[in-house]
Task: structure prediction
Amino acid sequence: MHADEEHAVSQVRRNARDMAKTKTQAQVEYRKTLEEKLAETLDTYSRDRAAGAENTDDGIQDLADKAASAYAKELNFSLSDSDRATLVHVEEAIGRLDSGSFGACTNCGIRIGDKRLRAIPWTPFCIDCAELAENGMLVD
Result:
């Protein structure tokens, strides 16, 4: 093997090693972000559930107060539903990290863009499949 060929092979091996190292660092960062989001969402969910469970009906509320109270409880429960959905997505993303499939769209299998993953690391979909899901055109 010529010196140039040996140098080229050596460079390819270094690049592959650097890419594997970068991938591992990115996965560590994604895991940290996901675990922080999981803790934050669990905290928010717990607070919303507690606020929704509080009984503010003291018997002297008029009809408008009762309506406002019912609206506030409904809002808290709807926020909790959103938090539950986020929890599921975050836990699934952590599972994908563990299985080695993190970063691939769960619908079509293509690589999810890095910008999208940095913005929403728990997303299961690439941008095209996310749009289909939002429009109800994607079956779970």
